[in-house]
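Request from the bench team (R.T.):
"We need a structural guess for the complex before ordering more pyridoxal-5'-phosphate. Sequence and SMILES attached. Just send the C-alpha cells back."

Command: build protein-pyridoxal-5'-phosphate structure.
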Amino acid sequence: MATAKKTEDTTKAVPRLGPYPTKIGGEELLELLDLWQFTPETKRQITELVRADRQLQGPHLFRYYNPRPSKVEAAEKAMSGLIGVKHCLAVNSCTSALVCAYRALGIGAGDEVIVPAYTFFATAATVVASNAIPVIVDVDDSLCLDPAAVEKAITKRTKAIVPVHMRGAPAGMDGILDVAQRKGLPVVEDVAQSGGGSFHGKRLGSLGTLGCFSFDYYKIHASGEGGFVTTNDEWLYTRAQSWHDTAACWRPDRFGRERQPGELFCGENYRMSELQGAVALAQIRKTDAMLAGYRRAHRRIKEAIEPAAGLTFRRVSDEAGDTCICLILFLKDADTTPKAMHAMQAQGVPAGGIYDQKVRDWHIYAYWDHILEKKHAAPDGLPWSAVPESELPRYSKEMCPRTLDLLSRAIMVDVHWQYSDEDCDNIALGINRALKEVT
Ligand SMILES: Cc1ncc(COP(=O)(O)O)c(C=O)c1O
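Reply to R.T.: structure attached below.
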C-alpha cells in the first residue's frame, strides 16, 4: 500500500499512514458533468482524460484550512470590489446573510425591524428567526419601502430598517437613509433581487450599514444556493463571521479567547462551500455583461410600448441604477389587469400578475400566515412573548391597502439579458396588441 520511498521508523507500530487515493477526486468531478449537461461525446472525452490523470489531488471543498487558494475567498474579494465595500462575507443563502446581518447588529428578543409589505418572505421570516418582531410597512409606486411610512412606523423598539431593492430596481435610498440618520438606526439593504444595481452611482449593498445578497437559482447571479453580506464596518463583519461559522474556523486563532467582548457567541453554520464559491466567482465576473444585456433589452421593449388608457410604468428611484431584469406596468384597475395579463400571455409575452387574490404567494405580506398569526417554533412563544400583547404590531391581511392596490394593478414582464432585438420587438408587439384589446 505505501509506495513512497520515504524512510520509515520501523520501531513504531505505525511507521507511516498513506498515501491514500484522494477522498474527493475524478469521480466527483465527473458527476458535475452530468449537472452541466455536457453532450455524451464531451462527457466521454473528459471522462477519459480525468481517469488517465494519476496526479489528480482532488479538490478541497472546505473554504478554510484549504491547501490551495480558496475560491470562496476569491469570490468575496471580487464581490467587495464589485460592490465597493471593505468587507464581504460569503454565506450559503441570502436568508443566512439576513440572519447574520441582524445578529451582527445585536438584534434579538423585544426588538422591532421594519420590513416592506412586498418582498420575499425571507426578509421578514429572518427577523422572527432572530427572535425579533417584523413591522410590516407599505411600499410606494416604486414597489419598494415608502420612506414616509417607515418614519411613521418607528417606535422605541425599532432596531433596523430593511429596504428591499425589489424586482431589480433600487429602493429610494435617499429618503430611507435620511430617516435612518435622523433616528440613529442602521439600514440593512436586501439586495437579493438586484445584485449589481446601483443608486446614484453607488452599488446597492454599499449604501446602508450592511447589504445582503442572494445567489440562488432565480437571481441575477446564481450558484445554486449562495449569498453574501457586505459592509464597511469591520466590527459588524467580525460579528457576522461569528454567527456564520460557530465552529470559529474563520478566526485567525480558532480556539483563542475573544479579542473584544461581543466577538464570540453561539451561532450557526452558514459557510459557503468551494463548489458554490467557484461558480459564484465566475458569475460575479459576468455582472457587467449581464447588466448590459438586461438594460439593452429593457430599453428596447419599453420604448416600443405604445401609450394606452390608464397605463403607467413602475416608478424607478434611479433609472440608471435599475438592473432591468423586468418591466413592471400598472393598469387602471384590478379588473383590467388580469385580462391584460392573459391577453399578453396569449401573445406569447412572458408576463405575470403580481397579486392574484386566489393565488398564494410568499412575496406578499397578506400570505405571511406565520407572521400574521404570530406562529412560533417553541413553547416559549418567542419572539411574540418578549413584548406585552398590547404592544405587539396589529397584523391583518388588510393592513397595507396601498401595497395591495398597487400589486393588484401590476403586470410584470420578464426581461432576459440574452434577448435578441427581434425577441424584444415581438414582446413589445404582443404587449401593444394585448393592451389594445382590453383598454
Ligand atoms: C428579496 C429577497 N430576500 C431574500 C431572499 C432569500 O434568498 P435565498 O433564497 O438566497 O435565501 C430572496 C429570495 O427569493 C428574495 O427575493
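Two things stood out. The chain has a mean pLDDT of 95. The chain has three domains: 22-59, 71-286, 287-362+402-438.
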